[in-house]
Amino acid sequence: MDFNLTNDQLEIKDLAMKFAKNEMMPKASEFDEKATMPLDILRKAWELGLVNTCIPAEYGGNGFTAIDSMIITEALAYGCMGMNTSIMANDLALLPIVIGGNDEQKKRFLTPFTQDYKIAAFCLTEPGNGSDAGGIKTLIKEDGDDVVINGNKMWITNAGYADLFVLYGTTDPALKHKGITAVVIEKGTPGIEVGKKEDKMGHRCSDTRAVTFNNVRVPKKNILGGLNQGWKIAMKTLDHSRPMVASSAVGGAQCAFDHAVKYAKERVQFNVPIANHQAIQFMIADMAMKIEASRLLVHKAAWLLDNNLPNTQLASYSKAFAADSCMQIATDAVQIYGGYGYSKEYPVEKIMRDAKLIQLYEGTSQIQRLVIAKEIFTR
Ligand code: CAA
C-alpha cells in the first residue's frame, strides 16, 4: 500500500492549489456577495486544464485518473467551494456521456469541451422528486427519429450558462427506474426555458435554476445507452461524482481548519494564545482527524474507480462522512473565531454556509446512509 502521491500528482496539486490561493480565494467573498458566476476565473481554470477532468485522453481530455481529479477538486474547493461547484457540475454532466455514450456521441459532445471553455448541466432532480430519483416524471416520448421531452427540472447547477444539458426522463413513469432514459440536449434547442437564478444560502456564485422542457425535440442519436437504459448510467455517474463532492468537502474543511489554527495562535485570551487552551486543542485535534479520515475515504473510493472495482459503498461512505465532517469543522472554525467568526469580514462564515450544501446535493447524507445500508443488506 502506498499513500504517497506520484510526482505528476504533486505537480497537479501544486498547480491547482496555487490557482485556488491566487485566483479564487481573493475573489471568493466578492462573488459570494454579488452572487454571480465568475466566468473569467472559471475560464482560466479551464485554460490550466483543471476543468472537465473526467474526459478521457482519446477525446481530447488530460487523461486524469479518478484520484487525480479528486486532488484537483480538493484544491479548487480550498479556494472557493461555490466556484468549485460550477467546475464540478461540468464533470457531473459529462460523466454520463463518458459512462454511457457511444464513440460517436463522445466525439460529438465531449471533444468541444476540450477545445473551448463550455458549460454543462446535469438535469435529474425535479420539483417533486429529489431523493426519489427513480420517480422522476419528465416524459420522453418517441416520435419517428426523434424523442419529444416534456417536464420540469429543479436545482440545476450551471443552468443559466449551459451549452449542453444531460437530461433524465422517463418513457413511462409506471416503470419507475426501468423507464429512465438519459438524453443530451444542446443549447438553443427550441422549448428549453431557464428559470430565475435561485438566491441561495451558500455557493452563491454558482448558478442554480429551474429548467422547463416544453415539447423539446431531440434526435434519437442523442440518447445515451438506448431508451430505458438511463438509470444505471445515472447511478454509475453518482458513484464517480460523489467522491468528487466528498473531495470538495475535504478542501473546504481544510481551508476552515487552516484559518482556525492560524487564528488560535494569534488570538490572546486569559494572557495566552487561545491555542494554549485545551478546549481549543481538542476541537483542532478532532478537526484534523476528520479531515484525514475523509481524505482517505475519498482516495479509496477513487482508487476503486481507477481499478474498475465496485465503489458504490465507498462513494457513499466518503460523501456522507466528508460532508458531515465539513459541516462540523466549519461550525467549529466559527466557534474558535468566536464573535468574529460570525462576521462576513472573516472567511469561516462563508465556509460554514457553503458546507451545508455539501450535505444536501448529489444525495443527502441520509440518502448516502440508505445506499450504504442497501449495499450491506441486499447486494
Ligand atoms: N450502480 C448500478 N446499479 C445500481 C446502483 C449503482 N450504484 N445503485 C442502484 N442500482 C440498481 C439496483 O441494483 C436496482 O437494480 P434492479 O432493478 O436490477 O434490482 C436499481 O438500481 C434500483 O435500485 P434501488 O432499489 O436501490 O432504487 P431506489 O429507488 O430504492 O433508491 C436511490 C435509489 C439510491 C435512493 C437513488 O434514488 C438516489 O441515489 N437518490 C438520490 C438522488 C441524487 O443523488 N440526486 C442528486 C442529483 S444531482 C445534484 O445534486 C445536482 C447538482 O446540480 C448539484
From TrEMBL:
Keywords: FAD, Flavoprotein, Oxidoreductase. It comes from the Bacteria. The keyword Protein biosynthesis does not apply. SUPFAM superfamilies: Acyl-CoA dehydrogenase C-terminal domain-like, Acyl-CoA dehydrogenase NM domain-like. Its cofactor is FAD. Pfam families: Acyl-CoA_dh_1, Acyl-CoA_dh_M, Acyl-CoA_dh_N. One of its GO terms (molecular function) is flavin adenine dinucleotide binding. InterPro entries: Acyl-CoA_DH_CS, Acyl-CoA_Oxase/DH_mid-dom, Acyl-CoA_Oxase/DH_mid-dom_sf, AcylCo_DH-like_C, AcylCo_DH/oxidase_C, AcylCoA_DH/ox_N, AcylCoA_DH/ox_N_sf, AcylCoA_DH/oxidase_NM_dom_sf. Belongs to the acyl-CoA dehydrogenase family. This is Acyl-CoA dehydrogenase.
